[in-house]
Write a structure and sequence with these properties.
Layout: H1 2-31, E1 47-48, E2 53-60, E3 69-71, E4 78-84, E5 92-99, H2 110-113, E6 114-116, E7 120-122, E8 124-127, E9 136-142, E10 147-149, E11 153-161, E12 168-177, E13 181-189, E14 199-208, H3 215-218, E15 219-225, E16 232-235, E17 240-242, E18 245-248, E19 255-257, E20 263-267, E21 277-282, E22 286-290, E23 311-313, H4 321-324, E24 327-334, E25 343-347, E26 362-364, E27 369-377, E28 379-388, E29 394-395, E30 408-416, E31 425-434
Parallel strand pairs: 3-12, 22-24
Antiparallel strand pairs: 1-12, 2-4, 4-9, 5-7, 5-11, 6-10, 8-9, 11-12, 13-14, 14-18, 14-19, 15-16, 15-30, 17-18, 20-28, 21-22, 23-28, 24-27, 25-28, 26-27, 28-29, 30-31
C-alpha cells in the first residue's frame, strides 16, 4: 500500500513539475502580448501615423537636421531616428519608393531604382532610462545592407510593423542625387519696390555638360526656404539659355518673404529652468509653461541668433540624450486679439512646419492669450506662429513681420527628365544662406 501511495505521489509530482513551467511560460507569453499598430493609408509626405511616434529625424550622418540627401557614389549615409512612446519592442521594417518631383509615385519599377532587396528590418533599439515618459528609441543607417537606391530622384521611406506595409508608423521624404549640374545662386533685395525692405530675391545659374534638348520642357528648379515645404517655389522657364549656361533671373520669380528670426526655447534641462520657462513641475510627466510671446508684426528688425527653424535633441541632466532625454507637455502662448479671422498654428522643424489639430492654438478667455500644449523631448527648439485664413491662405509673417535683414537658408533642387524616360531625376543641389544677423 505504501509502495502504491509512493508511486502515485511521484507520478503526481512529475506531472506537476511538467505542467507548472508550461503554464508559467504560457502566462508569461500572454503578458507580453500587445496590440499591433493599426492599418493606415499611405501619404507621400513626412508623417508620423500614430501620436506615440515622436522625435522623428532623418539626416546625413554628421549633419543633424540637414536635408536628407544621399549622393550616388559618395558612400555618405543617412540616419533615421525616432521614439515610440509605447515603450515596448516591435518588429519594424523599412522600404523605399521612387517618386517624381511632385511626390507622386514614378512609373519606374523596383528593379530600376533599388539595388538588392526592398525591405530590411530595424534592429537597433534601446529602452529609455531615468525618464517619466517611457519610450523605445529606434535608429537605422541608410542605405542598409539590403536596400540601396541606384536611381536619382525623390524617394519616400516607409516604416511599418511586422513586415505589413499597411501597418505604417511613419513615412519620410528623402533625395538621391546624381550630381551632374553645378548650381550657383545669389540673393538680393526684391525688384518690387514695395517689397524691397521685407523680401529676398534669388537668382539661379546652372552650369552643366548635360545635353539638354529643351530646358523649358526637361529641366525644373525648385527653391525652398529653411527646409520648409510650405515655403517653396518651382520654376520651369529659364530667362537665358546658352552653351552649358542656363539662368533663372526673372525679376518676378523666386521672390520670398524674408519673415523674421525664429523664436527660440531652451529645453535641455528639466531640473534647471531656462529664461523662457515661466513654470515647471512633474507628476506623471514634466509640465512646462513658457512665457507668453508678443505679436511682433509691427516691430522693427532685431538681430538675434537662431537655427532657421531647426531643432536639436539635447540633454543637460544626463549623459545619453538619445535614451536619457525625457518628454514634457510644453505650453506655448501668443498675445494676440481674440477676434482673429482664421486659425493660428505653432510650427517649426520639430513638426515639419505642418499645420494640424495637435499644434493649433485656441483662445484662453481667462488669460486672454492664444495657447497650445505639445509634447517635446529635451532639446533646443526654433518655432514660429503662422495664420491660416478662412480661404486657406497661409500668412507666415502674421505675428513676426518680414525684414530683408533676416537670416535664411535656401535649398535649390534641380530636376531633369531625360528624353525618352518617364521619371524625374535629381541632378543638382545647392544651398545659399543670407546671414545678416551674424
Amino acid at each position: 500500500m505504501n509502495i502504491k501511495l509512493t508511486r502515485t505521489f511521484l507520478i503526481s509530482l512529475t506531472l506537476l513539475l511538467w505542467i507548472a513551467p508550461a503554464a508559467a511560460q504560457k502566462k508569461k507569453k500572454e503578458k507580453v502580448k500587445f496590440e499591433r499598430s493599426p492599418k493606415q493609408e499611405l501619404v507621400y509626405e513626412n508623417k508620423a501615423y500614430l501620436p506615440t511616434i515622436q522625435n522623428v529625424q532623418f539626416y546625413p550622418v554628421g549633419n543633424e537636421n540637414e536635408t536628407p540627401i544621399y549622393e550616388i557614389g559618395s558612400g555618405e549615409p543617412l540616419l533615421l531616428r525616432f521614439d515610440d512612446l509605447r515603450s515596448d519592442v516591435r518588429n519594424y521594417y523599412l522600404s523605399i519608393e521612387h517618386c517624381d518631383r511632385d511626390w507622386t509615385p514614378s512609373r519606374t519599377s523596383v528593379l530600376d531604382y533599388v539595388e538588392g532587396f526592398n525591405e530590411d528590418r530595424i534592429d537597433d533599439y534601446r529602452l529609455s532610462q531615468n525618464t517619466y515618459q517611457h519610450y523605445t528609441a529606434y535608429s537605422v543607417t541608410f542605405p542598409t545592407e539590403y536596400i540601396k537606391p541606384k536611381l536619382a530622384g525623390n524617394y519616400i521611406l516607409k516604416v511599418y510593423e511586422d513586415a505589413d506595409k499597411d501597418r505604417l508608423i511613419l513615412t519620410h521624404r528623402f533625395y538621391v542625387l546624381n550630381n551632374l549640374v553645378q548650381v550657383e545662386s545669389s540673393i538680393q533685395a526684391s525688384a518690387n519696390v514695395s517689397n524691397r525692405l521685407r523680401n529676398q530675391k534669388l537668382n539661379v545659374q546652372l552650369k552643366t555638360g548635360l545635353t539638354i534638348q529643351n530646358p523649358q520642357r526637361d529641366l525644373s528648379v525648385l527653391v525652398r526656404q529653411n527646409h520648409r515645404e510650405d515655403t517653396q517655389m518651382l520654376l520651369e522657364q529659364p530667362s537665358f539659355v546658352g552653351n552649358n549656361d542656363i539662368r533663372y533671373t526673372n525679376s518676378a520669380t523666386l521672390d520670398f518673404k524674408a519673415n523674421n528670426e525664429f523664436r527660440f526655447v531652451d529645453l535641455r534641462s528639466f531640473r534647471v529652468a531656462s529664461e523662457r520657462v515661466l513654470e515647471m513641475w512633474q507628476d506623471s510627466i514634466t509640465h512646462i509653461i513658457l512665457r507668453t510671446d508678443e505679436n511682433n508684426h509691427n516691430e522693427t528688425y532685431a538681430a538675434t541668433y537662431d537655427e532657421n527653424g531647426r531643432f536639436y535633441t539635447r540633454n543637460r541632466d544626463f549623459n545619453d540624450e538619445d535614451i536619457d532625454g525625457d518628454y514634457a507637455a510644453v505650453t506655448f502662448s501668443l498675445q494676440a486679439n481674440e477676434d482673429i479671422k482664421g486659425d493660428i498654428y505653432l510650427v517649426g522643424g520639430f513638426n515639419n512646419f505642418q499645420r494640424n489639430p495637435e499644434n493649433k492654438l485656441s483662445y484662453d478667455t481667462e488669460h486672454k492669450v492664444w495657447s497650445v500644449t505639445v509634447k517635446l523631448k529635451q532639446g533646443l527648439y526654433d518655432y514660429e506662429y503662422v495664420l491660416e485664413t478662412p480661404n486657406g491662405q497661409v500668412i507666415s509673417d502674421a505675428f513676426s513681420g518680414s525684414h530683408y535683414d533676416t537670416g535664411n537658408d535656401y535649398q535649390i533642387f534641380i530636376y531633369h527628365r531625360r528624353m525618352g524616360t518617364y521619371w524625374d531625376e535629381l541632378v543638382g543641389f545647392s544651398e545659399n544662406s543670407i546671414n545678416n544677423k551674424k
